[in-house]
Amino acid sequence: PPDVEELGRSTWTFLHTTAAYYPDKPTMAHRVNMLSLLRALPVLYPCSVCATHLGETMKTHPPDVSSRAALSRWLCEQHNEVNERLGKEKFDCSIDKLDERWKDGPTD
Ligand code: FAD
């Protein structure tokens, strides 16, 4: 079976980084493809407990693919749901903090 922790770190890296470089003004093609990518996760993600939880939280809190900032925040909130469940610290979902971690690096 996959290493759920390693898989998780790699997947969050891919998802947060992809959100950080998503357009401010996405075209319909950007939106449709991002929605497909996210909606595939509860079906395909190779940790069934994780996939089931994600499917549940995506139902009550549907993805917002309307802009880079909206998508980044939505993903941060999803990740925080998992953090909370696992007893990990919550992340500050402001765009500044997200960009520092996933796009620009520390400013000083
Ligand atoms: P991770 O949680 O992997 O975080 C990696 C880095 O992301 C952190 O070091 C931090 O810099 C940054 N970060 C942390 N929180 C946020 C945030 N909210 N927004 C942006 N950046 C942030 N594991 C389970 O045991 N049970 C589950 O049900 C489960 N569900 C998962 C669902 C999904 C969709 C994914 C992708 C992973 C899931 N995992 C689950 C794995 C789990 O989330 C962690 O990836 C794993 O436990 C390793 O944790 P970590 O402490 O190394 O850091």
Itemize the secondary structure elements and their pairings:
Blueprint: H1 4-20, H2 28-44, H3 48-60, H4 68-85, H5 95-104
Helix pairs in contact: 1-4, 1-5, 2-3
Structurally, how many domains make up the residues?
1
What is the strand tally? 0
Taking pLDDT < 50 over at least 5 consecutive residues as the criterion, the unreliable ranges are: none
The succession of helices and strands, N to C, reads: HHHHH
CATH class value: Mainly Alpha
Q: Work out the strand percent.
A: under 5%
Helical segment tally?
Answer: 5
Say which CATH homologous superfamily is assigned: ERV/ALR sulfhydryl oxidase domain
CATH architecture: Up-down Bundle
User: What's the end-to-end separation, in Å?
Assistant: 41 Å
Largest sheet: none
| Shape field | globular
Please state the average pLDDT score.
97
List all distinct small molecules, including ions and cofactors, that are bound in this structure.
flavin-adenine dinucleotide
Helix content: 55-70%
Structural Rg: 14 Å
Sheet/helix structural class: mainly alpha
User: Which fold name fills CATH's third level, the topology?
Assistant: Four Helix Bundle (Hemerythrin (Met), subunit A)
